[in-house]
Amino acid sequence: MNFIDIILKKRYGQELTDEEIAFFVKGVADYTLPDYQVSALLMAIVLNGMTDREMTTLTLRMAESGAMIDLSDMGGHIVDKHSTGGVGDKVTPLVIPLCAAFGVKTVKLTGRGLGFTGGTVDKLKSIQGFNINIDPKDFRKLYNDVGMVISGQTPDLAPADKVLYSLRDVTGTVDSIPLIASSIMSKKIAGGADSIVLDVTCGSGAYMKTPERARELADAMIRIGDLAGRKTVAVITDMDQPLGRTCGNVLEMQEVYETLIGKGSEDVVEVVCYIAAQMIRLAGKNEGIEGDDLIRECRARLTDGRALEKFNDLILSQGGLLNEHGLPVYVDKPFEALKVTSPETGYIKSIKTDDIGYASVELGAGRHKMGDKIDRGAGICFYAKVGDKVKRGDVLCSLCHGSKPLIDDAKLFDVMEKVLNAYEFSDEPPMPHQAVIDVIGA
Ligand code: URA
Question: What is the pLDDT of residues 356-385, one digit of tens each?
């Protein structure tokens, strides 16, 4: 096969055959295709799109380019979740124990943060001793004994996607629905999912800035799921402001615990319960409860101690520490370093959430590049959210660092300026935000 013909075919908007896509993915995975030719095809895909069949073939070939997790012989239906990312997104450490409280078994492979979004790996590592690098051969034991595993992605999971993603990052080809959809779905399928629930975030703190784009991405992934034989449901959620009351690693894990004892923020509870309800339904563990009743039952089990018991099981099974009162032991303690106060009286109209995410990275909660040190105590606590009425001088949020801050006072004030600039005020109350915007494919 001549790869130039494949590039030209896509350049002129024609459909690639399964064999051509397989040739492309193989050449990417074994590095026999040069970067410039792969990049040319990626750009042609960005410009001319892909049919559902092309996207599905690309997804499956990328999934098969490395190790595939297969727990089908252990019985049970494996349901996985994926979030397209955001700021303050602490959904995974809540959803997995909540699903376990309904008897749903999960193997969740999770990534590090990208850009301004925080990653679940770093959040869970803020519990002392918690091992996030589970050897795939131990998945079976944990799946069997505890019914939950949360692990960082192994390097051999969908390696073709890894190569393509790093090329896309430097060739202006990240923002493409077929490429994003196949990238995400390939990792879910390689991770052994029988069915998939997607949390597709939208707004200023998400890759998809509008509900329309989020729906477009969700639809593409649902169609791939259908053609690949994995029932897929998408929950579109709001990321036009940070989720919950905190962003940052220890801060978010503290908020997870508060949520499990009934002191959570309503937006977090809503998103977690909608996603869990879909996972429970797909796994067939909804005990005949449907619709709003299932959401109510999720709310009950999230806060009445049943999900907390599973959360503690998860921590202990992966080497995490609980103290003598049964509370998680964190690797550091966040200190409030600076309160950010409102310069105006009025309503909070909007919060540029990507800017808040970048500010949190500057405080030390995330990395600018791989290998950077992070401050697990760093982050931001939000005291007022979109729609809240504030007076001049009221505290909007506070900037935190851990016991060994990575930034000095001058930088802290610099971050404060950036955070303040992310807030917009109005005299009139803004339209209320719904944490869950839509559920598609249920
Ligand atoms: N997340 C992924 O896993 N892949 C993409 O292409 C974009 C976001």
Answer: 999 999 999 998 877 788 999 999 999 999
Which residue's CA is minimally distant from atom 7 of ligand 1? 180
Short-list 202, 197, 190, CA closest to 95: 197
Residues 6+ apart with CB under 8 A from 331: 125, 126, 127, 128, 250, 376
Q: What is the CATH number of the domain that holds 318?
A: 3.40.1030.10
Q: How far is the CA of 348 from the centre of ligand 1 (A)?
A: 31
391 is catalytic: no
183 is a catalytic site residue: yes
DSSP letter at 119 equals -
DSSP state letter for 137: H
Q: What is the pLDDT of residue 115?
A: 66
In a domain? residue 56: no
Say which DSSP state 324 is in: T
Number of structural domains the chain divides into:
3
389 found inside a domain: yes
Among candidate residues 326, 356, 386, the one where a domain is terminated: 326
Q: Which residues contact 369 (CB under 8 A, 6 or more apart)?
A: none
Q: How far is CA 160 from CA 30, 34, 58, 167, 326, in A?
A: 8, 14, 10, 11, 42
pLDDT reported for residue 314: 97
CA–CA distance, 307 with 297 (Å, rounded to integer): 12
CB count in 10 Å sphere of residue 165: 16
pLDDT in tens, 150-196: 998 888 899 999 999 889 988 999 889 999 999 999 999 999 999 99
Q: Tell me, rounded to whole angstroms, the distance of Cα 390 from its chain centroid.
A: 31
Cα-to-centroid distance, 183 and ligand 1 (Å)? 6
Residues 16 and 120 placed together within one structural domain of the fold: no
| Pocket lining: 183 vs ligand 1, CB cutoff 6 Å | yes
Q: Sign (positive/negative) of CA torsion 415, 113, 310, 237?
A: positive
Q: 154 near 132, Cβ under 8 Å?
A: no
- Kindly report, residue by residue over 242-293, the tens digit of the pLDDT: 999 999 999 999 999 999 999 999 999 999 999 999 999 999 999 999 999 9
Tokens of 318: 């992966």
